[in-house]
Amino acid sequence: MADLGLLPSFFAVRAPKFETPWVGILFSCIITLTISFLPFEDIAATANILYSLGMLLEFATFLWLRVKYPDLIRPYRVPLGIPGLIVMCLFPSVLLGYVIAVAHRRVFALSAVLTAAGIMVHYLMRYCRSSGLLKFTDGEGLENQQLEQNSIIPGHEEEINGVV
Predict the structure, then answer these.
(1) Of 25, 38, 146, 148, whose CA is between 20 and 30 Å from 93?
(2) What is the C-alpha separation between 75 and 126, in angstroms, rounded?
(3) Rounded (5°) CA angle 124-23-12
(4) With contact defined as beta carbons under 8 Å apart, do 8 and 134 qualify?
């Protein structure tokens, strides 16, 4: 994510021997260890709620884009009108709503805290990028790195030149 410019570039610091992003891995391990002290059922239920919220957001975005930009060129298109799309999204939305509704208060509170933390981190990263507090990559480094890796592998010269 740091290579893509979504996180500060210090998360992409790589170990000299194996080229692994050790800072990002360490940060991920700290989060995982912190969460591991919770009961497994709470972890699973929280993951389900956060996934459900993400899917509901995707459904809403899908419908909004179809209404706002009906003629937008897309790689694929569901051959239904707006009423059909609403019906298509309705059944999974009800199931996702059920997952959220049956959650315990502790799980719901944890999900709310994590969602709020994610939103705050998003705006914090935007502020850090715009004010120059932290250095971010522009995402081109990852593309160049992939091209370099492909050029090392014999027989992949065509992929680099755009011919597969």
Answers:
(1) 38
(2) 30
(3) 75
(4) yes
Token pair belonging to 84 = 């059909």
Q: Are 160 and 151 in contact (CB under 8 A)?
A: yes
The residue type found at 14 is: R
- Residue written as tokens 């999204």? 89
DSSP 64: H
Which position has the token pair 């891995």? 25
Q: Residue 19: which of 162, 153, 151, 148 has the closest Cα? A: 148
**Token pair recorded at residue 118:** 């994610």
Phi-psi region of 2 (alpha: psi -120 to 50; beta: other; left: phi over 0): alpha
Q: What is the pTM of this model?
A: 0.68
Q: At what angle do helices 40-68 and 105-131 cross, to 10 degrees?
A: 60
The separation between CA 114 and the C-alpha centre of its own chain, rounded to angstroms, equals: 14
* Full pLDDT tens readout for the chain, 164 residues: 777 777 787 777 788 888 888 888 898 899 889 888 989 999 999 999 999 889 999 999 999 999 999 888 888 888 889 999 999 999 999 988 888 888 889 998 999 999 999 999 989 988 988 888 888 887 665 555 555 555 554 554 554 445 44
